[in-house]
């Protein structure tokens, strides 16, 4: 039997993002710099204007973002979204949205990266708190991450230490991530392989199992790392 996969093509995840317009100490407006360790991420700009600052071992770059721009980056890219005029983005994420489900480490100063409890104490947003309190926490963690980000930009040699600290923080959750990957991108690839095998044999029976799906956001206005989110539950 050909295995089915009913998630989005390739097992990707999607969210809609209105980038924060909060001013920062450097005079720019935008979100929280952070890094993904196992997922690539892509931006499809749908409105407004801004930029994404990126920092890798190859250096620092700024990519302008205007409607119609598609930009993407691979794991290990520290990124910070800048909102210059109502920047709105559809975000494409590997592994069924894993970047918003754990695969992210903020560029906090080193003293906050020592263990999971210390990290969570300054990054966790209390979901049962009023919106005003959630926003205050999100802004504080953004500003704290900008402190660490500034050091990383000024001292590129410190990137290796940040990478190591980030990897140590996420290591206990890698097993959960692997299960998500197996249900998502890996399952999608296996399904395609089996379908190609059948087609080579002249067997089109899997076409009888076609499905159509549509989803509305499962959450609207969530305080994310880069802005307010419309979140979709789209695992296969």
Q: Termini distance?
A: 18 Å
Helical residue percent band: 25-40%
* Global outline: globular
Biggest beta-sheet profile: 7 strands, antiparallel
Written as H for each helix and E for each strand, in order along the chain, the element string is EEEEEEHEHHHHHEE
Strand fraction band? 25-35%
Q: In total, how many beta strands?
A: 9
Poorly predicted spans: none
The radius of gyration computed from the alpha-carbon positions, rounded to a whole number of angstroms, is 19 Å
Class per helix and strand makeup? alpha+beta
Residue-averaged pLDDT: 95
Number of helices: 6
Give a quick set of tags describing it.
236 residues; two-stranded antiparallel sheet
SSE blueprint:
Layout: E1 13-19, E2 34-35, E3 41-56, E4 59-65, E5 70-73, E6 78-93, H1 94-97, E7 105-106, H2 116-123, H3 131-154, H4 159-170, H5 174-183, H6 185-200, E8 219-223, E9 227-231
Helix pairs in contact: 5-6
Describe the structure.
- The protein has helices at residues 94-97, 116-123, 131-154, 159-170, 174-183, 185-200; strands at 13-19, 34-35, 41-56, 59-65, 70-73, 78-93, 105-106, 219-223, 227-231.
- The chain has 236 residues and is an alpha+beta fold.
- Strands 1, 3, 4, 5, 6, 8 and 9 form a seven-stranded antiparallel beta sheet that branches. It has a two-stranded antiparallel ribbon with strand order 2-7.
- The mean pLDDT is 95.
């Amino acid at each position: 039997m050909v295995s089915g996969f009913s998630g989005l093509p390739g097992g990707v995840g999607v969210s809609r993002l209105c980038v924060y317009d909060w001013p920062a100490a450097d005079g720019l407006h935008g979100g929280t710099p952070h890094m993904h360790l196992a997922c690539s991420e892509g931006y499809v700009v749908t409105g407004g204007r801004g930029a994404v600052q990126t920092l890798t071992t190859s250096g620092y770059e700024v990519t302008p973002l205007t409607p119609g721009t598609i930009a993407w980056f691979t794991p290990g890219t520290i990124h910070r979204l800048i909102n210059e005029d109502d920047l709105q983005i559809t975000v494409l994420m590997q592994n069924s949205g894993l970047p918003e489900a754990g695969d992210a480490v903020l560029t906090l100063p080193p003293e906050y990266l020592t263990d999971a409890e210390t990290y969570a104490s300054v990054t966790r947003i209390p979901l049962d708190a009023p919106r005003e309190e959630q926003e205050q926490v999100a802004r504080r963690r953004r500003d704290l991450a900008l402190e660490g980000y500034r050091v990383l930009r000024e001292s590129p040699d410190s990137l290796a230490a940040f990478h190591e600290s980030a990897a140590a923080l996420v290591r206990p959750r890698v097993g959960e991530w692997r299960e998500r990957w197996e249900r998502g991108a890996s399952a999608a690839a296996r399904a395609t392989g089996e379908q190609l095998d059948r087609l080579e044999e002249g067997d089109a029976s899997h076409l009888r199992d076609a499905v159509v799906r549509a989803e509305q956001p499962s959450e609207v206005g969530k305080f994310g790392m880069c802005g307010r989110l419309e979140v979709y539950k789209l695992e296969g």
